[in-house]
């Protein structure tokens, strides 16, 4: 009897202790042992710290503050150990700090770590970690762009993503998802007003030895009988290095390879910068010269930490000006001409739509139509229908937009979509460079150790590989090597 009571009491105390351990390690009452590994979006308080100027060689923290940080880190490591997770790590120093963990920031981190290996300390700060979805949206890979630097970047993107989809034999890498790369072509069609531009592009493609075909409306009608050629003057059909793939799988693979090379991805929000007075090193010591040296980061737990860096690369997408404004210590820095804009796309179903021979339709009006696999679904959007979006809330789809504007354009170009049915819709915010609709890549005129990568609009996956490699070359070799991206520098604005 006594033995049975002792065993029951022991089991009860063990269960209570187990529940307490779950509570300490996860921060919630997790009595069902549910999976808490899926990252949650964090709503950060609107906090902006004023810039602080540090003196070289003078400690900026008291010994008590440093001891408090060490004790807090030990506690976090203890909780992570109870939960069976890797210990948290916030580096006090980083050779290169990347702000933004999307495809652009991840590509920069990957190319930096790929060139140097673990010897270079690269840290990526991102507001919210990407969701662990099995399948995401579809990204188009096409070559029909309007300038030679853009074309060279898309050529590298084709090589990069095709190799990314190959089986990985590295035992140090985790099991990586298939990016589901599908070969496809693109058809750029223009009206009478744009015929000369298409011919100029064809000359550029020919000089760069890219396989394409210029077609008259009669040839297009014969090859694609479902296409309405009214108003078309000429078409350019791409035949090489084009297709589409899954964006979430591609991003996961790039991040995994960067982490394998030593890159650290951390969740947090940059709320300020500390500057160092380097006037003593300036040519004219009478002029006060400041340079940013520490980033102030607020973690999801609302802790405020500082990270010293050599270079900082701002690839924060639509939030890029929020970070740039934190560097404005003496009102000498203007905002970049990058504006958040909303782009809406629709997935439609059409049983009588074009089949496997359908390329990515790129109409001069901005209309884009892509076939999604083999099930008779298509994605429709218009690259030129961008709406300024300054709100911090998630963008919402205007249901009338498809019926009133996009649907008439769609059935005019492809009449078989007359009976299509909308399955889903998606609104995303893109960063548009209002100056000339091209990228902004390179160091800021004021601070040589601050680099910018922005203005991608809806082409972030298309240009991210080349921009990532170019930024890595700037940091490590002090200049562009493989592709000359100097035409995208900030000095032009």
UniProtKB/TrEMBL annotation:
GO terms for cellular component: mitochondrion. Keywords: Oxidoreductase. Residues 95-474 form the FAD dependent oxidoreductase domain. It comes from the Eukaryota. Pfam families: DAO. One of its GO terms (biological process) is mitochondrial respiratory chain complex I assembly. The keyword Electron transport does not apply. GO terms for molecular function: oxidoreductase activity. Required for the assembly of the mitochondrial membrane respiratory chain NADH dehydrogenase (Complex I). Involved in mid-late stages of complex I assembly. This is FAD-dependent oxidoreductase domain-containing protein 1.
């Amino acid at each position: 009897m006594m033995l049975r009571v002792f065993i029951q009491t022991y089991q009860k105390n063990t269960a209570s202790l187990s529940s307490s351990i779950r509570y300490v390690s996860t921060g919630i009452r997790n009595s069902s042992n549910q999976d808490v590994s899926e990252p949650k979006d964090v709503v950060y308080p609107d906090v902006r710290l004023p810039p602080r100027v540090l003196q070289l060689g003078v400690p900026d923290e008291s010994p008590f503050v440093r001891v408090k940080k060490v004790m807090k880190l030990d506690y976090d490591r203890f909780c992570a150990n109870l939960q069976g997770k890797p210990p948290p790590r916030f580096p006090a120093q980083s050779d290169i700090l990347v702000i933004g963990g999307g495809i652009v920031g991840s590509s920069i981190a990957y190319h930096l770590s790929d060139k140097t290996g673990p010897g270079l300390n690269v840290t990526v700060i991102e507001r919210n970690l990407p969701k662990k979805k099995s399948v995401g949206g579809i990204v188009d890979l096409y070559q029909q762009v309007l300038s030679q630097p853009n074309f060279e970047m898309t050529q590298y993107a084709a090589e990069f993503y095709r190799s990314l989809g190959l089986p990985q034999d590295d035992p140090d890498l985790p099991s990586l998802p298939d990016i589901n790369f599908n070969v496809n072509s693109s058809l750029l069609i223009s009206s009478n007003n744009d015929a000369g531009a298409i011919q100029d592009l064809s000359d550029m493609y020919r000089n760069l030895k890219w396989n394409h075909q210029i077609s008259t409306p009669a040839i297009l009608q014969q090859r694609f009988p479902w296409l309405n050629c009214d108003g078309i003057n000429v078409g350019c059909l791409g035949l090489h290095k084009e297709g589409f793939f899954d964006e979430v799988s591609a991003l996961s693979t790039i991040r995994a390879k960067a982490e394998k090379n030593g890159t650290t991805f951390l969740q947090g929000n940059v709320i300020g910068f500390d500057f160092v007075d380097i006037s003593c090193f300036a040519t004219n010591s009478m002029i006060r010269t400041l340079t940013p040296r520490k980033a102030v980061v607020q973690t999801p737990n609302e802790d405020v930490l500082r990270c010293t860096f050599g270079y900082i690369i701002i690839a924060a997408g639509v939030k890029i000006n929020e970070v740039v404004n934190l560097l404005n210590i003496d009102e000498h820095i203007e905002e970049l001409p990058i504006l958040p804009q909303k782009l809406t796309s629709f997935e439609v179903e059409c049983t009588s739509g074009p089949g496997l021979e359908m390329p990515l339709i790129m109409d001069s009006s901005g209309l884009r139509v892509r076939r999604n696999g083999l099930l008779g679904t298509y994605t429709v959007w218009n690259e030129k229908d961008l709406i300024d979006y300054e709100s911090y809330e998630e963008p919402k789809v205007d249901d009338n937009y498809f019926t009133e504007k996009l649907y008439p354009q769609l059935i005019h170009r492809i009449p078989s979509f007359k009976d299509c049915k909308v399955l889903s819709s998606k609104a995303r915010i893109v960063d548009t460079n209002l100056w000339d609709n091209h990228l902004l890549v390179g160091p800021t005129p004021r601070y040589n150790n601050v680099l910018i990568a922005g203005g991608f609009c809806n082409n972030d996956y298309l240009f991210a590989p080349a921009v990532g490699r170019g930024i890595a070359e700037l940091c490590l070799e002090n200049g562009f090597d493989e592709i000359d991206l100097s035409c995208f520098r900030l000095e032009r604005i």
